[in-house]
């Protein structure tokens, strides 16, 4: 009895030590993530798309359904995440930005666990820091979709990597379920889910399963992966919104026109160069500097990166923030170069860390964010007196967050400005853009917001109609600059104060 007690005492002490270490690690990464993201916290205009996701997510609690009442083509799960953030009671954008910070720390912790397969705790810890930095550089500085689905992919990787694990099949099933949830954040994770599924099936084949058994397991994987989407579809079927759900999720994606620039714009060349350099350095390091201590895991990481690359380039139009999906794969492939126990010691790891943190330009970003806040305050002050729950603002081009910030009602289910002004969306909606624009203007909204410079290729019909119509019945009452664009507030002339 005494011997058993003495054996257990050191084990319990060691468990407590590990728990304290993990707690300090989580705290340290959380503080670092908050420091890196500090310039953007509280800025409605830290990014563009998330303003729509937050608006639709908040409207869930008012009975407004995505696709039926407010339109977008992102999966239901993404709006549910933003709805959960809104349920915290914090005002937007704090609610979803702090919620997203939890996910970026989770991703860093999961990446560290994968890195420990090849390197020591110090290198793995720095890699977690680099993950937060690279995700921020590549567009996940606030609450873009990548900040949510990338940790899910890392979780899948941890579960399926070791195909010789005694519970490999059970772990793979859990991974496929996670992949199914990730599909409800962004459908383009399909290539990564396929890679993890094929890796797990290959492991089962090596373990002695015959082909009929492999086929049965593959079918089970597919069911687990598709189940969340099937459940959402059944919900919409029961609610009478199946047609809207099907069109938004599985038809409109293929109707959207590709951008003239193709999948890779010229300006992306410099932007992605850090990722390219790290990848090449890692591959070179694996051959010439430090042979990975687990070559099978390193091969798995290379496959992860290739699958993430397929995710980035799956849509016909690729936006810069998509490249955040490459960050974890690039860092893992770069480990033979970054390993502080390699032939040149800590120099590569230190140099890369300093360079990446330098690329953040945090002082400049903080100054830009402060300008955004002041501009947003000015726009809200000009708009708010003229709108309410029945008199609706219409943002033809400008921040979607103005609807929430001013307390305005919503004049259309196509509430995202890009859906009605972007030429690429011309044939990808359930209505003609020009017809919806004419309907909205026919309702004589008290306030209309426009921009002097477009983000995207514009539909000439809708732009021309708004440009011609506004001066006839509206006057500009405020101008502000956000993201280097002039945002103008037009007030209906009969609402102008009399001289």
From TrEMBL:
The chain crosses the membrane at residues 21-40, 94-111, 118-137, 172-202, 214-238, 268-285, 297-314, 345-363. This is Glycosyltransferase RgtA/B/C/D-like domain-containing protein. The keyword Transmembrane applies. The keyword Nuclease does not apply. Keywords: Membrane, Transmembrane, Transmembrane helix. It comes from the Bacteria.
């Amino acid at each position: 009895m005494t011997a058993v007690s003495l054996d257990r005492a050191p084990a319990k002490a060691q468990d407590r030590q590990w728990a304290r270490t993990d707690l300090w690690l989580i705290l340290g990464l959380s503080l670092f993530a908050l420091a890196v993201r500090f310039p953007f916290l509280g800025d409605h205009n830290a990014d563009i798309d998330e303003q729509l996701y937050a608006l639709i997510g908040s409207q869930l609690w008012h009975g407004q359904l995505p696709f039926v009442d407010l339109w977008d083509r992102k999966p239901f799960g993404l709006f549910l995440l933003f709805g959960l953030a809104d349920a915290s009671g914090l005002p937007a954008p704090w609610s979803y930005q702090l919620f997203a910070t939890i996910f970026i720390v989770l991703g860093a912790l999961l990446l560290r666990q994968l890195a420990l397969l090849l390197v020591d705790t110090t290198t793995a810890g720095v890699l977690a820091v680099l993950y937060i930095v690279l995700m921020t550089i590549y567009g996940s500085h606030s609450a873009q979709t990548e900040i949510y689905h990338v940790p899910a992919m890392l979780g899948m990787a941890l579960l399926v990597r070791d195909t010789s694990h005694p519970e490999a099949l059970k772990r793979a099933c859990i991974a496929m379920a996670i992949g199914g949830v990730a599909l409800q954040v962004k459908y383009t994770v399909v290539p990564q889910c396929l890679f993890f599924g094929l890796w797990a099936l290959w492991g089962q084949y090596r373990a002695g399963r015959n082909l009929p058994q492999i086929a049965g397991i593959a079918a089970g994987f597919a069911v687990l992966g598709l189940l969340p989407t099937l459940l959402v579809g059944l919900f919409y079927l029961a609610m009478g919104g199946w047609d809207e759900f099907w069109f938004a999720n599985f038809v409109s994606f293929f109707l959207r026109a590709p951008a003239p620039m193709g999948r890779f714009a010229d300006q992306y060349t410099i932007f992605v160069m850090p990722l390219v350099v790290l990848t090449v350095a890692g591959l070179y390091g694996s051959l010439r500097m430090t042979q990975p201590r687990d070559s099978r895991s390193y091969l798995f990481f290379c496959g992860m990166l290739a699958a993430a690359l397929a995710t980035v380039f799956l849509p016909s139009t690729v936006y810069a923030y998509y490249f955040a999906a490459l960050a974890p794969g690039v860092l893992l492939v770069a480990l033979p170069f970054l390993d502080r126990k390699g032939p040149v010691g800590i120099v590569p790891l230190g140099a890369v860390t300093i360079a990446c943190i330098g690329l953040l330009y945090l002082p400049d970003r903080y100054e830009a964010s402060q300008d955004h806040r002041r501009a947003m305050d000015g726009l809200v002050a000009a708009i708010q007196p003229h709108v309410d729950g029945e008199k609706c603002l219409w943002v033809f081009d400008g921040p979607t967050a103005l609807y929430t910030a001013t307390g305005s009602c919503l004049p259309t289910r196509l509430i995202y400005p890009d859906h009605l002004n972007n030429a690429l969306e011309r044939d990808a909606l359930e209505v003609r853009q020009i017809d919806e624009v004419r309907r909205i203007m026919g309702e004589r909204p008290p306030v209309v917001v426009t921009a002097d410079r477009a983000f995207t290729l514009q539909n000439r019909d809708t732009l021309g109609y708004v440009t011609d119509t506004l001066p006839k019945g509206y006057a500009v009452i405020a101008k502000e600059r956000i993201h280097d664009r002039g945002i103008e507030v037009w007030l209906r002339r009969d609402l102008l104060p009399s001289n």
